[in-house]
Every structure is written in structure tokens, then in C-alpha cells.
Amino acid sequence: MILNRIDIQDYVNSILGTKDIIIEDNVLMSGMEDIVNRIGIVNPKALKVLETPVILTRSSSSATGVSSFSTMLQYVPADNEEIKVYYVRGKIPKLAIRVDNPEQIMNPYSLLNDGSYGKHYYWLEGKNLFAYPPIPAEAEDTERYCAEIVKYGIEGGGKLIWHDRYKYPLALYCSIFELNKVFNAYVSLLVNKMITDKIPYDYSNVEKRLNKDDVELASAELQKIQTIISEQATASDKLRVTMENVVNILQRIRNLRQEYYDWFGVLSQAPGGVQ
């Protein structure tokens, strides 16, 4: 199934009970990045559905200075995870061999140097994947290197490079982001109303908790401020309502974040990913 931005927006609106939320590109990309990185930690095999074949292009390796072929990775697998890189000539692809030290395969005195027996190799330099030996320019129409790598992103027309299997966590991530925007707007309103009603407050502890990503304790700190407001005779009804909204929204954020984390907990137990 081909996913579009509107598919995620509709999902977010259904989660939040809204109608007109528009998800920005940077939020979608940030969500994809977070999800891919978390999957890479709990169940790397589940990233298989996000793999797509790409053709490597002619370049020069910074480690060796030798002409080779490369592509940039969005997701860099851990050392114990292999990337499938193929040398393709005709109809039969040949699997390339991964090496940690590419200089050794080019050294004529190295045991890893196979002379001209036709082996092909690949290695990683940061986010760049390189393949060797180079293909002669005149043969590039009939020979090539290709790799199966994790890809994600946004194409023209709002089409997403993403898998339907992972639509739910992406919608949760975007929902949390949108709720945080609403939360921040209500906090600004809350602070202004407390100043207007001349009620002393200390929001710093809430900020400290939120900056440390501790939503639960931030909620506890908000409850303290709510108690102070309830005890003040000068507090207006609008202030009390605003405070209730702030507390309720943060609670919703906490619930959605827990659902988000729980999804990865389920994924960690699934050999091939969430079905």
C-alpha cells in the first residue's frame, strides 16, 4: 500500500478527535527517524520491510583515495548486521563481501588481496557505503553495484517512502507532537492568567521535568500548581479551567507516549516485526 501524508493526518485526527490537523514535513521526517532508530535497537530484522534497492554511483573513498562506487545511508546498521551489496553483470547478481579495512584488499602483499579472481567488496565510512573494485566507465551500462538499504522520507505530491506496517507508530509520534503544541499554548495562557490574577507560581520544576522527558513527574508538579490555584480566593474561573486543560492535555500526552513505547515493546518480541 502506498502511503500519503493525508493517510497519517487522517490517523492523527482520529486519535486526537480533531479534523483539520496538517502534519509538517519536518515532523514526519523526525518521526520516521525516531522510529527507525528505535526499531534498530529493539528488533533490527523488522527494518527489512523498509529496505529498497539502490544503485551505487561512482565516487572516491576518503579512507583509501581509490575510485569506487558509493551511496549514503539514512540508517547505519550495527556492526553485526550485514548489508546486502551486489555486483550485477547480466542477470546473475553476485553478493559482495564486507571488509573492515578496505586498504588491505588493495595491498598486493595482503592475504585478503585476491589478485584478479573477481571478488567484490564493500565497507562503511560513517554513513557512506563503498563498493570495490571500480567498474570501468565503458562497462557501466552492463555492470553495476546495487545495495538493499533502509529508506524513508517524503516524495513529491505528499507521497511517503514508508511502510503501511509502521503507520500506527508514526501517527502516534505526530499526535504527541501536535498535543505538545496545544500544551505549550495553554501553558502560555496559564502563566499570563496567573500573573493577571496575582497568584504566585513556580513553573520551573515543571520545565525541568519536561526538559528531561519526564512527563509523569512534570504532571505531578502541575498538580502542585493546581492545588495552589484552588486554594486562592482571587483565582478566576477562567484560570481554574485553563489549569484543568493544561493538566488534562499533559495526561493525554503521557498516555500516548506510553502507547508509543508499548508498541516497541511488542515489536521487540516479534521476530519479523509487527504484522
What this model shows, in words?
- This protein has 275 residues and is of the alpha+beta class.
- Helices cover 44% and strands 18% of the residues.
- It is built from 7 helices and 11 strands.
- The protein has helices at 5-16, 25-42, 102-106, 167-196, 204-211, 215-231, 237-268, and strands at residues 51-55, 57-60, 67-72, 84-89, 92-95, 97-98, 121-125, 128-132, 143-150, 153-154, 160-161.
- Strands 2-3-8-7-6 form a 5-stranded mixed sheet, with no helix packed on it.
- Strand 2 and strand 3 form a beta hairpin.
- The longest helix is centred in the last third of the chain and has 32 residues, at 237-268.
- The radius of gyration is 26 Å and the shape is elongated.
- The chain starts with a helix and ends in a 7-residue tail after the last helix.
- The model has no long low-confidence stretch (mean pLDDT 87).
| Binned strand content | 15-25%
What is the helix tally?
7
Q: What Rg do the Cα atoms give?
A: 26 Å
The count of DSSP E runs of length 2 or more, i.e. the number of strands, is: 11
Mean pLDDT over all positions: 87
**Termini separation:** 14 Å
What is the N-to-C order of secondary-structure elements (H for helix, E for strand)? HHEEEEEEHEEEEEHHHH
Which strand order does the major sheet show? 2-3-8-7-6
Task: Assign an overall shape.
Answer: elongated
Task: Bin the helical content.
Answer: 40-55%
- Spans of 5+ residues with little confidence (pLDDT < 50)? none
> Largest sheet, described in full?
5 strands, mixed
